[in-house]
Fold this sequence. Notes:
By secondary structure, the chain is α/β, with parallel strands linked by helices. The protein contains eight helices and 15 strands. The strands form three sheets. Strands 6-7-8-9-11-10-12 form a seven-stranded mixed beta sheet, covered by helices on one side.
Amino acid sequence: MTAGPPAGTATGVKRRAAERGRALTATPAAVRRLRPGVVAVLMTLLALTACSPNPARTPAGATAASQPPAGPTNSGPTNSGSTNAGSTTSGPAIAGPSPGTTQASPTPADQALIAAGDIASCDSSGDEATARLLDGMPGTVAMLGDSVYPDGSRSDFARCYATSWGRYKDRTRPAAGNHEYQTAGASGYFGYFGAAAGDPARGYYSYDLGAWHVVVVNSNCWAVGGCGTGSPQERWLRADLAASTKKCTLAYWHHPLFTSGNQHGPSTVMRPIFATLYNAGAEVVLSGHEHNYERFAPQDPRGRRDNARGIRAWVVGTGGASHYGFGNPAPNSEVRNTGTYGVLRLTLHAGGYDWQFVPQAGRSFTDRGSATCH
């Protein structure tokens, strides 16, 4: 005896339809004497039944399309891994949230922050070299002070800054340096950058950049009522950090608390500001003033290594004005370079950041790495 085709195959379906048709023709004569229209309806119903692969019974009030697919399912996307660019998913595609759940807010896109200080001088071509780097480098420009020499006057900006870094004025968020205040009230600086530099009476402000909160501090403490605990700027900083909803925080100003530079040395007056940032869980502090590049390991306000909660500090006085040397390496100093103009490019992710020092054309020094937020 030869077995017939499996019932679930197309051939088996067609065979069952034929058999049911024959069964109808074998029914009593009384059935065959029904009106032709009734017989046609019965034949159609039998054919439709034969073409169905016997699906599981559908509960009353539901449709077959609403039934879950066979095999494992989940109630939402499952993260199987993640990268800085985003997460990957596994499991069946999900068209929308399950009843009774809420969708997470979209993750802000990565943002680039490009930083350097001590930039433009009509006696140097270094600022033109670093400006050419920015030509092909999108992102927000963090100017770390001493934007133009010698005095930050309106004339200095027009003659020496506007022709190089001035091309990126519309995406620059500046910090004031000491040379800006060599013009009374830093009026040339505030006049040039306008609202982007903050209130001229203060020169400190903050803004959000993607998933990050960014604070710009005025380290010319004498001009803003001091930088100590309880000073107007420090009280403002505490309130600003408390109001932020961002997980990651970065701050920048001109005078560095930590440096191995031999020209100016550490600006210890900035310790209370650094401490306020540390207590709030900030990640990064950028400064200039020393005309060189230096990166520190995460540390507390006293300069003690702190991998768990410490702030990673940079000196990026490499904008193009001139070069300064180093003295003895400060504790926790990890990388130092002088003699290379360039910019520090930070890529800010939702939960961390990448850094890369990009040197002027023709120079090979670089420094790069990644870290996560606290």
